């Protein structure tokens, strides 16, 4: 029973991680870029959301409605001003640029919001739970998982069925050939990053509702997103989703073994997957 | 003659290495011109430079008289120039149909943006490409990487046609294919030209190039060494231009 | 290997000589040797406080040069070298404090730990493509931190103190620190310079410029990368062991502090990647900035971060890159110049 509970909590936690991982999988898939400030952007959006909520007395839903468009805009601007200049075969420039951005963002947030942990008031949403067969399941984590599933499904459908999705996949496969077919790579990149950071708008709201956020939390979120993407296997959004579940379950079970072992268990499962199946659980060899 | 595409003293370089030394060419509306030459003569570089994949000066390439040198490749496509690139460069992981749809999508986007101006008169549709290469209809759902070389080449040509080009650049479309498959692919050329599309064929096979084209240019070490009507040029002339016999080799 | 010109002749060609040292290089080498002597002599001219900050400076130089070797030559952009600093630091404390081994001997014994850990780490992480490799190195550093937090051998999260150092007089400790600083620079900076001038150097530079082309020219890119990774782990380990010996205290948080990655990246990128001169310039800038503006805390780091971003966007070769474009006077020449006695310089590799 205790382990079943850990499993369920792990899946629910995975729902949170999936919201981080989707954007990273998308950006890496298309541009071969990892945005080191990925986690910091979540925290930035969370803190903006918390400030908005307290300034205007907004509930979680209005905050979400405000944050997602803001996140999309941030993603678009990030691509136009920074990433478009560093995208290319050499991974160094993009890493260094986003690394510098990450340090600047963390410390900027520290100045504006101080080092304190904050959270978004959920007006009782965070404490509601459902009991199924003696196991209590929080309503909020279920919503998080449902939203993560919906985002993954929507992103997958968008990639497979829409004009933009095809352009994205074409640019991911061969960017020069895509340009020779009439695709403007920079426009595709900008939209991809806008979508990736837009998803972080959801993650920001749910992270701030589920637990607390502080300016220094970003790197941990970056690492979880990264582990989920690698565990799942690169190149598919469902891979990132399943990877998030595996990471969440590993952490939850590790936490049951010893509270100090939770995060480490996730890292160990990641390293184990890397050692035995480097292409990821769902990646093509 | 009103040239749809022309180059004027086209110069291109890869870093320190100069690959083209002032190439002048002309392509009339609806014409088919072959570009022949040995490996490394600069044929593919010429196409890449025209397509905007290499930095060149604005005045060096003209489309309908308008200077377009150095325009980004996606803008060149919108202006009506499409390419069947060397090595086919299909979108791996995507099906045959999705590969073709990418071109349809972009052509539709461009048409929506610029009205009916940009697209060629070709009016290529998925159905017409399927009529041209029936195997592509049969394999619509197959991922392109599991096709044969000839079938992949057909996808690449179909993709370029669906960009609705007025000018089609073909880079070594016979390379590595069996003679029967080459005949099949070249059989599509009259239909492409019938749609009003002018074609530049880069070809290693001189005989094939000569029979398929109206005019031809022969290149050697980044320069045009011979130009003329395909039907009137003799084998000996080509041989001379091709290998630089009788020319002072720089 | 000789520092002087090597005669070079081939049948039918004019006699040319290969020149490997330049006037600017000779000056810099002389200054470097003088600095090394000054470093060794510190106990006789510097206060304990001065020795401490010079030691810190030496650690910055060493860690930055190791990162430079990884990112600037081997194409391995690590953001987790603190893993090896902490591992060696902890190894020193365990050997000296727990097992009572002479701490100055233990500094060198502790280097076995990063060397041994670097092997499986490399084999796990090299499967990851470009940017994913980087975050992988960060995960490994986090794993080391979390393991040390849970490991009773290293007193778990509470950390350890190096009380055995009390057995030595202040002067003895100063002498040891000074010698260790000199060794650290000799191994990391001197070692890199030697490596870049050796036959591996050409391979490394070829690899930096184009790994695929280098591989096709017979450079064993994979093996060279592995060796550089292990060497950098040992170099960072030595810096870590010396740093924490001076600190007298180590905790999981300080041992595996990602700050070291920030610092190395800032120094190398601003100073100029792919050159030893860049590391020297960058370290100097960072050190001065840290002294002058460190008290501004967060806003100082905002500026540091934005500067790193700006270098990545607008000036990838850093300060040394800009200098080298204007004046051809390398401090540490690694190239080979062909000298035609009749005409002067003919060509060079850099």
Strand and helix layout:
The complex is a heterotrimer of chains A (285), B (250) and C (350).
Chain A (H helix, E strand, L loop, with lengths): L1 H30 L6 H19 L3 H27 L4 H23 L15 E4 L2 E4 H23 L1 H11 L1 H5 L5 H26 L7 H15 L4 H21 L4 H15 L9
Antiparallel strand pairs in A: 1-2
Helix pairs in contact in A: 1-5, 1-8, 1-9, 1-10, 2-3, 2-4, 2-8, 2-9, 3-4, 3-8, 5-6, 5-8, 6-8, 9-10, 9-11, 10-11
Chain B lengths: L2 E12 L2 E12 L3 E6 L5 H9 L9 E3 L2 E2 L5 H6 L2 E4 L11 H19 L11 H7 L1 H5 L10 H13 L5 E5 L7 H8 L2 H6 L3 E5 L3 H7 L2 E6 L2 E7 L5 H9 L7
Helix pairs in contact in B: 3-6
Chain C lengths: L5 E3 L7 E4 L3 H18 L1 H4 L2 H26 L8 H17 L4 H7 L2 H14 L4 H21 L9 E2 L8 H28 L1 H11 L1 H6 L4 H27 L1 E2 L1 H4 L3 H13 L4 H18 L4 H17 L3 H9 L9 E5 L3 E6 L1
Antiparallel strand pairs in C: 1-2, 2-5, 3-4, 5-6
Helix pairs in contact in C: 1-8, 3-8, 3-11, 3-13, 3-14, 4-5, 4-6, 4-7, 4-11, 6-11, 8-9, 8-11, 13-14, 13-15, 13-16, 14-16
Protein name (chain A): Branched-chain amino acid transport system permease protein
Subcellular location (chain A): Cell membrane
Membrane topology (chain A): Multi-pass membrane protein
Structural summary, described in words:
The complex is a heterotrimer of chains A (about 280), B (about 250) and C (about 350). Chain A is mostly helical and about 280 residues long. Chain A is about 75% helix and about 5% strand. Chain A has one domain: ABC transporter involved in vitamin B12 uptake, BtuC. Chain A has helices at about 1-30, 40-55, 60-85, 90-115, 140-160, 165-175, 175-180, 185-210, 220-230, 235-255, 260-275, and strands at about 130, 135-140. Chain A is globular. Chain A starts with a helix and ends in a 9-residue tail after the last helix. Chain B is α/β, with parallel strands linked by helices and about 250 residues long. Chain B contains ten helices and ten strands. Chain B has helices at about 45-50, 75-80, 95-115, 125-130, 135-140, 150-160, 180-185, 190-195, 205-210, 235-245; strands spanning about 5-15, 15-30, 30-35, 60-65, 65, 80-85, 165-170, 200, 215-220, 225-230. Chain B has a six-stranded mixed β-sheet, sandwiched between helices. In chain C, a hairpin with a 3-residue loop joins strand 5 and strand 6. Chain C is of the alpha+beta class and about 350 residues long. The chains are: A mainly alpha (about 280), B alpha/beta (about 250), C alpha+beta (about 350). Chains in contact: A-B, A-C. Chain C: Pfam families: BPD_transp_2.
């Amino acid at each position: 029973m205790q382990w079943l509970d850990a499993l369920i909590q792990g899946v629910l936690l995975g729902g949170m991680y999936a919201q981080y991982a989707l954007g990273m999988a998308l950006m890496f898939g298309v541009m071969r870029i990892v945005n080191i400030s990925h986690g910091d952007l979540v925290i930035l959006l969370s803190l903006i959301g918390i400030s908005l909520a307290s300034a205007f007395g907004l509930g979680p839903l209005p905050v979400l409605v405000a944050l997602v468009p803001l996140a999309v805009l941030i993603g678009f601007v990030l691509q136009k001003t920074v990433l478009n200049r560093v995208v290319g075969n050499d991974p160094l420039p993009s890493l260094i640029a986003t690394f510098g951005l990450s340090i600047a963002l963390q410390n900027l947030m520290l100045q504006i919001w101080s080092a304190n942990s904050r959270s978004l008031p959920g007006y009782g949403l965070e404490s509601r739970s459902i009991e199924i067969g003696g196991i209590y399941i929080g309503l909020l984590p279920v919503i998080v998982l449902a939203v993560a599933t919906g985002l993954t499904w929507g992103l997958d459908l968008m990639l497979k069925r829409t004009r933009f999705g095809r352009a994205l996949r074409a640019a991911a496969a061969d960017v020069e050939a895509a340009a020779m077919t009439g695709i403007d790579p920079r426009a595709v990149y900008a939209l991809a990053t806008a979508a990736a950071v837009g998803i972080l708008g959801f993650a920001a709201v749910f992270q701030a509702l589920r637990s607390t956020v502080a300016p220094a939390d970003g790197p941990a979120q970056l690492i979880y997103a990264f582990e989920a993407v690698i565990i799942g296997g690169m190149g598919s959004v469902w891979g990132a989703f399943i990877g998030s579940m595996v990471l969440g379950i590993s952490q939850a079970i590790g936490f049951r073994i010893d509270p100090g072992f939770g995060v480490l268990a996730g890292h160990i499962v990641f390293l184990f997957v890397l050692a035995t199946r480097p292409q990821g659980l769902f990646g093509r060899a | 003659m009103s040239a749809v595409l022309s180059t004027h003293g086209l110069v291109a370089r890869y870093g320190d290495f100069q690959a083209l030394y002032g190439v002048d060419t002309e392509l009339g509306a609806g014409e088919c011109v072959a570009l022949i030459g040995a490996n490394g003569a600069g044929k593919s570089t010429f196409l890449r430079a025209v397509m905007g994949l290499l930095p060149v000066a604005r005045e060096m390439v003209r489309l309908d008289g308008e200077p377009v040198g150095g325009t980004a490749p996606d803008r060149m496509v919108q202006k009506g120039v499409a390419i069947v690139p060397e090595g086919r460069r299909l979108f791996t992981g995507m099906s045959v149909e999705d590969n073709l749809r990418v071109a349809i999508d972009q052509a539709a986007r461009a048409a929506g943006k610029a009205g009916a101006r940009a697209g060629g008169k070709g009016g290529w549709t998925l159905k017409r490409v399927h009529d041209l290469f029936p195997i592509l209809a049969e394999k619509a759902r197959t991922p392109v990487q599991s096709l044969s070389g000839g079938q992949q080449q057909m996808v690449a040509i179909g993709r370029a046609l669906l960009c609705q080009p007025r000018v089609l650049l073909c880079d070594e479309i016979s390379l590595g294919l069996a003679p029967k498959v080459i005949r099949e692919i070249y059989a599509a050329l009259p239909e492409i030209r019938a749609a009003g599309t002018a074609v530049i064929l880069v070809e290693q096979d001189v005989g094939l190039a000569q029979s398929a084209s109206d005019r031809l240019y022969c290149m050697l070490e980044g320069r045009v060494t011979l130009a003329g009507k395909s039907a009137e040029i003799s084998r000996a002339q080509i041989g001379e231009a091709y290998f630089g016999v009788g020319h002072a080799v720089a | 290997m000789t520092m002087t010109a090597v005669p070079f002749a081939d049948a039918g060609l004019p006699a040319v000589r290969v020149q490997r040292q330049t006037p600017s290089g000779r000056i810099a080498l002389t200054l470097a040797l003088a600095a090394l002597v000054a470093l060794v002599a510190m106990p006789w001219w510097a206060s304990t406080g001065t020795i401490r900050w010079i030691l810190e400076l030496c650690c910055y130089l060493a860690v930055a040069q190791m990162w430079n070797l990884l990112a600037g030559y081997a194409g391995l952009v690590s953001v987790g070298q603190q893993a090896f600093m902490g591992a060696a630091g902890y190894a020193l404390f365990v050997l000296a404090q727990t097992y009572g081994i002479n701490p100055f001997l233990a500094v060198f014994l502790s280097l076995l730990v990063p060397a041994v850990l670097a092997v499986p780490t490399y084999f796990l992480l090299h499967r990851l493509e470009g940017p994913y490799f980087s975050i992988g190195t960060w995960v490994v550093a986090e794993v080391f931190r979390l393991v040390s937090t849970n490991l009773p051998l290293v007193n778990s999260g509470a950390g350890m103190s190096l009380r055995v150092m009390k057995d030595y007089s202040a002067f003895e400790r100063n002498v040891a620190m000074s010698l260790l600083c000199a060794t650290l620079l000799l191994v990391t900076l001197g070692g890199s310079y030697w490596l870049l001038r050796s036959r591996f150097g050409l391979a490394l530079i070829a690899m930096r410029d184009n790994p695929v082309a280098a591989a096709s020219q017979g450079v064993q890119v994979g093996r060279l990368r592995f060796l550089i990774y292990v060497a950098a782990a040992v170099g960072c380990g030595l810096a870590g062991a010396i740093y924490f010996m001076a600190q007298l205290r180590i905790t999981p948080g300080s041992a595996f502090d990602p700050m070291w990655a920030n610092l190395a990246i800032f120094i190398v990128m601003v100073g100029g990647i792919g050159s030893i001169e860049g590391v020297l310039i960058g370290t100097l800038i960072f050190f001065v900035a840290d002294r002058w503006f460190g008290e501004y805390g967060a806003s100082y780091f905002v500026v540091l971060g934005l500067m790193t971003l700006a270098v990545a966007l607008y000036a990838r070769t850093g300060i040394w890159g800009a200098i080298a474009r204007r004046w051809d006077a390398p401090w540490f020449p690694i190239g080979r110049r062909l000298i035609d006695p009749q005409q002067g310089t003919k060509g060079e590799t850099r």
